Amino acid sequence: MPISRRALLGTAAVTALPAWPARAEKPTLKLGVLTDLSGPYKDGTGPGAVEAARLAAEDSGLQAKGIDVEILAADHQNKADIGAGVARQWFDRNGVDVILEGSNSGEALAVAGVAREKNKVFLDSGAATSDLTGTQCNANTVHWAFDTYMLAHSTGGAIVKSGGDSWFFIVADYAFGHALQRDTTAFVEQAGGKVVGAVRYPFGSTTDFSSFLLQAQSSGAKVLGLASTGTEGANLIKQAHEFGIPMRLAGLLLFISDVHALGLEVAQGLNLTASYYWDLNGATRRFADKFARRQPGRRPTMVHAGVYSSALHYLKVAAEMGVAQAKADGAATVARLKATPTLDDCFGPGRIRADGRKLCPSYLFEVKKPGESKGPWDYYTLLATTPADEAFRPLAAGGCPLVKA
């Protein structure tokens, strides 16, 4: 079933998207996809995240077990107050049991707080801040797919080891950019490198990055760390290419949709980290093919993979618990999610730690040169793999109050 125009273009209004026709006599689980349907993160999250949730609902097999699944979608507009407001409406008035995605760190931290207050479930796949499983962790939230520590560990660590030992950062001025700069700085300095400077730009309102790029160039640093993503991150890379900035670019969070928009001529040689790549193996290709039938001409990002994986795991566990029990106690449901191993085509086998961190391997890629690509979306060469137990911040190091000393 295609996504409605209202879901694609709506602001914070709730759009119901049933995965199949609901019947009142059946128990129903309600999933809300709170995402960026119209802003800078739309291509990497947005409508694709909604389709990923619907695919999970269909693949869960719950209809055959007499359980209905209803999908709602809303645009948080990358604003914490709007995201929190939608979450409250969904939990209080619409009977939503779990919120998926996030895609903005400030908004995700706010929604995590609402989920804790209402004792519901929040499964984040799009927001990056590692604080979700650190000092601001809670018993109702699980963080899927990636975070700023993982990105800094893989991409930042690899670049320092290969000679990029002096850095300048251009940073999106909100929770995501701050966390990514903080975590990458720690790895740079730990490896013996140094950060010579940084500049922050107003998130969501900047299209001309020339002054920031000139500051970076004048710093004398070898590496330009881009603590940005989405269309803003892509614009930064394009403008750095146009201005001939003689620095090594570190795209600390790039989705395959960003590389597609840039084109290989501009993006070639960039190093980036992801937990999912559509052409990694047979299972990842299987999910990508299903996704492409819903989103023609596209391949899923790791956010889309995270939404599918998290929704599928939730639906499996909720069915095992019993729908009534799962709906009644979000913290108990999250505890059961943590106790149950994860398994899906996107990430393979995995588990969820006590702090709510979903563990999976991380992959360091290099973007191919145009002549190396065999066709559309064949963009990455795998450079290194970090095992799941090493990819993320050590459990005891995050300051999560759920972790007992």
From the structure above, extract its key features.
single chain, 405 residues, alpha/beta, Rossmann fold, 2 domains, six-stranded mixed beta sheet, four-stranded parallel beta sheet, 15 helices, globular
What oligomeric state do the depicted chains represent? Answer: single chain
Give the number of domains.
2
Beta strands, count: 16
**Total DSSP helices:** 15
How is the largest sheet built, in terms of strand order? 1-3-2-4-5-6
Name of the CATH architecture of the largest domain: 3-Layer(aba) Sandwich
Taking the sheet with the most strands, its summary is:
6 strands, mixed
Spans of 5+ residues with little confidence (pLDDT < 50)?
A: 1-14
User: Radius of gyration in whole Å, from Cα?
Assistant: 20 Å
The global form is globular
Which percent band covers the strand fraction?
Answer: 15-25%
State the secondary-structure class.
alpha/beta
Query: Any idea of the CATH topology of the largest domain?
Result: Rossmann fold
Give the helix level as a range of percent: 40-55%
Mean pLDDT: 92
- Our measurement of the CA-to-CA distance between the termini, rounded to an integer number of angstroms, reads 49 Å
> What is the CATH C-level name of the largest domain?
Alpha Beta
